[in-house]
Amino acid sequence: MKRIGKIIFSTIFILLTMLSGQELLDRIVAVVDDEIVLESEVTQMAWMMAAQMGVDPARDQTKFAEFRKIAANNIVTKELLVIQADKDTINADEQQIETYLNQQMQMATQQAGGEEKLEQIFGMTISRIRRNYRDDIEKELRANAVQEQKLANVTVNRREVREFYNTMKDSLGRINDTVDISHILVETQPGEKARMEAMEKAIQIRKELLDGADFAELAKQSADPGSAQRGGDLGFMSRDEFVKEYAEAAFSLQPGELSDIVESQFGFHIIKLEDKRGEKIHTRHILISITPTREDEIAAAARIKDIHRQLQDGADFVALVEEFSDDESTKNDRGHLGVYEVEQLRSMAKEFIFALEGVEVGGISDPVKTQYGFHILKLNSREQAREIDLDKDYDRIEALALNYKKQKELEKWLEQMKRQVYIEYKDKSLL
Questions:
Q1: Are the C-beta atoms of 180 and 338 separated by less than 8 Å?
Q2: Which is higher by pLDDT, 73 or 1?
Q3: Domains of the chain listed by start with CATH number
Q4: In this predicted structure, what is the pLDDT of residue 110?
């Protein structure tokens, strides 16, 4: 689904299979114009491919070497597209970046077993990991925007679709059991009571600090578990590695000075400036998160039940998506999550499978709760497993033929770009 599975960048959380002992290496393996490609980037993407294909890199080193070559080529391609994005002044949408970033961090943290473990794996603070992820996401979105712009006018006619089908039908496989679903999402948002409780806690902690309490000791209460274990220490970081509110407050302090309470998207911060060094500062912080209360969850449940009643009374699903859904990534697309194989959906959100049992095509589910909030699902269509057929599946085959043609056009364009941009593979095994 768009909120869970249709993220257009490579999901790095799968790379946490490196918990098995594979260490990230950091050396330059390629250069694209004035950008470098690190061994760690290639290894990460190759591990992701291995995990998706069910390949054990330790047992099948030949296959893993192939994944590394593919990964290196994909990264070089992305850098080429970003260069074109710079030329065309194509930027990524900030809200979209934040949406995908929050999803990525949540998945990575869950897979690692907590923020502290995630910091251990990558050898850096959560804030730095977040910053690195953000840069990757921004690049990916800009690269995709360039690609979409370049291929926007590529089309296929019926003859091309039929030729594609006749040539590729043996490799197109079967159509498995699939469902096409849309949803309305109501998130559990912290209310004013939750905010005030967090604020009161922040005020009390700051008072204790002003009265002489040890910052490192009180930082053990911080909602940032990674830095909490280090007495709230974030180390030296530049301004763009912090969220705006934190940066503005921290850079206005003098060494040894304590900030007022600073509110950001993560909650309330109390910041202590340890040192300044050029364009970087060394800070400690205590984070008090704003956690939804039981009353907030009850309120969200009441909202979804009210929306469900309106739908049962004949209200228009799309109108209610536009008015009530908290899923910004699907709100402008009629709440459409996409078409999913049933088994795929089961692995992504098994709650949806149970919710859809007994729902007729065109019908809606009862409210269902997941880690993202409360949902109402609409079953747009359901299809049983069968062989693919040109007449029955023309739209699907047309889309495959179009993607195939776009890929060929993209490859031609990239080859032209490679002749114009300096590219050097320092690790020849990746060629």
A1: yes
A2: 73
A3: 12-155+419-430 (1.10.4030.10), 175-189+293-386 (3.10.50.40), 192-288 (3.10.50.40)
A4: 66
